[in-house]
Design goal:
Blueprint: H1 6-18, H2 21-28, H3 32-46, E1 51-54, E2 57-60, H4 62-86, E3 94-98, H5 100-105, H6 107-117, E4 123-127, H7 130-138, E5 144-148, E6 160-173, E7 184-185, H8 187-192, E8 196-197, H9 203-214, E9 224-225, H10 229-239, E10 243-246, H11 247-251, E11 259-263, E12 268-276, H12 285-295
Parallel strand pairs: 3-4, 3-5, 7-11, 8-9
Antiparallel strand pairs: 1-2, 5-12, 6-10, 6-11, 6-12
Length: 313
């Protein structure tokens, strides 16, 4: 059984709306026999009479009523496609919101590679903490997001999610700090020591607090929260204070002198995920290109993300 043709659906909707095959034929600028032929062909595909015919015109049958609303929706979509074919709209930049570390150190290089490979694709990058990134993507203000995964997060915002990178939170220690002489920082001493860090309401901060609480320790309040990765490290060095920062960020500052240490018995693993709203198949082509480029990275080719609980060493 073949599928109904768009022209047949147009004839059906016109006749149902005007209540007359003759009037519908005039509106569509075709002959009445041609109109009747289209309607009969559609009824053959549907396997039911769609109209009750009389000398006063036509009226929809129960089968016709069921088809009428669906046919109008399909014709609206067909009209939209035809309009885009006649007048292609210029593609707007893909809006990406990202957690600061990835926005500063990873995404610019990835997007530069994409624009070299696919001319005409452009992107706008917004830096925000992961909670705000999820909100921006969920309400449609951004097309895609890169977030740090919070394994203790209980709310489900309905976003699609796929892991793309792994990282780790480490302690940046000034060379003259006592912790620089240690292999690992004792757990209790770390929990009681105020450190320099980024956004205290970020997923990474909640991750550290939650893991210390699970180990039976209450975490000391940070000394200060700094906006950028480089400033976190320079503040730590100038004040001779340890800082909590991602390993990716620490490795991105090779010109600064500091030691990298970890907490004894714990590893603060970070996972970064691409998030999106709805189905990827419904995204405009430029967004699909950017998402596909990010997900084609080596780690992203693995199976879909299942959130593991962070463990101890």
């Amino acid at each position: 059984m073949r599928e109904p043709e768009v022209a047949e659906l147009r004839a059906f909707v016109a006749a149902a709306t005007l209540g007359s095959i003759a009037e519908a034929a005039r509106a569509m600028r075709i002959s009445q026999p041609a109109m009747s032929k289209k309607l009969k062909a559609l009824e053959a595909v549907a396997g039911a009479d769609l109209f009750e015919r009389s000398t006063r015109g036509v009226r929809l049958t129960p089968a016709g009523l069921q088809l009428f609303s669906a046919a109008k929706r399909l014709l609206h979509s067909a009209d939209t496609v035809q309009e885009l074919i006649r007048n292609p709209a210029p593609d707007t930049p893909v809006r990406i919101a990202s957690s600061p570390t990835v926005a500063e150190l990873r995404l610019p290089r990835v997007l530069m590679q994409l624009t070299r490979e696919q001319q005409g694709v452009s992107a706008e990058l917004i830096s925000a903490n992961s909670s705000l990134v999820r909100e921006l993507v969920s309400d449609g203000r951004c097309d895609l997001g890169i977030v740090t995964v919070d394994p203790y997060r209980e709310l489900d915002d309905g976003l699609g999610e796929r892991l793309v990178w792994r990282d780790e939170l480490v302690i940046v220690v000034p060379p003259d700090h006592p912790w620089a002489e240690l292999d690992d920082v004792p757990l209790e001493e770390f929990a009681q020591t105020p450190v320099v860090q980024r956004d205290p309401w970020s997923n990474t901060s909640r991750l550290v607090t939650a893991m210390l609480e699970r180990a039976g320790f209450e975490r000391a309040q940070p000394i200060t929260a700094i906006g950028s990765t480089a400033n976190v490290i320079t503040t730590a060095l100038s004040t001779r204070t340890p800082a909590l920062i991602s390993l990716m960020a620490a490795n991105g500052q090779p010109h600064l002198q500091f030691e990298i240490r970890r907490v004894e018995g714990l590893r603060f693993g970070l996972e970064f995920a691409l998030v999106w709203a709805g189905s990827m198949l419904d995204m405009r082509p430029a967004v699909q290109s950017v998402a596909g480029h990010i997900l084609d990275l080596p780690f992203a080719r693995s199976k879909h993300h299942e959130q593991p609980a962070p463990g101890t060493r």
